[in-house]
Amino acid sequence: MAISMIIPLFFLFTFFSALLFLRRRHLHRRLRLPPGSFGLPFVGETLQLISAYKSDNPEPFIDQRVNRYGPIFTTHVFGESTVFSADPETNRFILMNEGKLFECSYPGSISNLLGKHSLLLMKGALHKRMHSLTMSFANSSIIKDHLLLDIDRLIRFNLDSWTDRVFLMDEAKKITFDLTVKQLMSFDPGEWSETLRKEYVLVIEGFFTLPIPLFSTTYRRAIKARRKVAEALTLIVRQRRKGEKKNDMLGALLASGDHFSDEQIVDFMLALLVAGYETTSTIMTLAVKFLTETPLALAQLKEEHDQIRAKKGNPEEPLEWTDYKSMTFTQCVVNETLRVANIIGGIFRRAMTDINIKGYTIPKGWKVFASFRAVHLNPDHFKDARTFNPWRWQSNSETSSPGNVYTPFGGGPRLCPGYELSRVVLSVFLHRFVTRYSWFPAEEDKIVFFPTTRTQKKYPILVKCRGCQAK
Ligand SMILES: *[C@@H]1O[C@H](CO)[C@@H](O)[C@H](O)[C@H]1NC(C)=O
Ligand SMILES: *[C@@H]1O[C@H](CO)[C@@H](O)[C@H](O)[C@H]1NC(C)=O
User: Fold this and answer.
1) Is residue 383, in this structure, part of any structural domain at all?
2) Which atom of ligand 2 is nearest to the CA of 419?
3) Residue 459: closest CA among 293, 275, 222, 218
4) Is 426 domain-assigned?
5) Most buried by CB count within 10 Å: which residue of 113, 162, 336, 350?
6) Could you read off the pLDDT of 340-383 as tens digits, one per residue?
7) CA–CA separation, 119 vs 131, rounded Å?
8) CA of 448 to the centre of ligand 1 (A)
């Protein structure tokens, strides 16, 4: 491009930036927007946000703004003006007014890759029906009577193959993928599921790219992988339409009076596989990491699980619901891991109309981010909020109003349907893991929070089976 063109472009850019700046200042005064700063033109504060969440201590990004402006503030990230809430009451208001005042809003990459018939993108009455259908496949009575046995069996099956050095994050992903495939369509793990899983990895990598195939090879690869996954799932759906009826999620979708098309069913299952796969495996890995770094908690957890095993005698004997219910300290570990790790750190929504809250206006069309993380890590709500301390859940004080300040699974109409299932999976995994292996980290590894919560090196550990020496 000739230099003569760049100079006018530069002036144009400066001019529009100045205009934008003045308009925003005007907006702030007229509408009583929450206070805040929009940062640089166009990029806003996106770079500060990303660099904070790419570190193992992202808290300063929100802390600084909360200190300056209060728990509801305005910023400009990912190309849009966004109201951040670090306030539990406001977060609850946002969750409870889903579909009335706020609607969900995801980046183009995620909605393209998940597909429009996924639970995440559905709205209104259809969402309500599908949400409760999903819940009815993951509620506690179903887990107790049907799923627990498979969960226990598939976790044991996966643990069998561990020797020496394992990447815990990878192994946990295999487990959660196998479990989800089993639950959705009754398949046991094998070559088919492992091939499918490899494609899934590519799809998920595409979630946080620019959804423009020309610019991003990762996105191109993700689109291709999505097509392959959809083809594989479509085949299964077609077979099952003709073949036998089974009591699984796919069976329920096929039997539903809604007469869903193949495409609808495939989108729906494809997205549930993402949901079941990513989050639970991360929480499994982080629980082990936190426990490794908190030896007292690990010792107490081991004792709880050794006692359960001792009562059973044979290590092959399956876990029962009463065993799960007897894991009281484990439940504290589960809650504390969810609180500190915040796999879903918060949710983006869009204001459907001008909304007045706490004396401010959120203008129609603006983005809102309800930060659960900011609440979970706020010392006003949890003492020593930034340390992993499972014992806090033993005292009543912390749990007096957990519904308001503790929302690891969100809430309202979009409450995570897998909230109970993921707790059970994590508990059974911890049971089998600590009774079978001892381990130590093979390398230093740290947690990062962008684009998703994960450890940088997939948490490599060296495992040794407990009591093997005796053989
Ligand atoms: C769980 O869902 C099943 C249907 O799948 C239903 O019959 C049962 O009542 C539900 N149980 C609970 C505790 O909600
Ligand atoms: C864990 O958190 C849930 C809320 O999600 C609460 O109902 C439960 O009592 C907590 N468990 C313990 C052991 O405090």
Assistant:
1) yes
2) 5
3) 293
4) yes
5) 113
6) 999 988 999 999 999 999 999 999 999 999 999 999 999 999 99
7) 7
8) 37
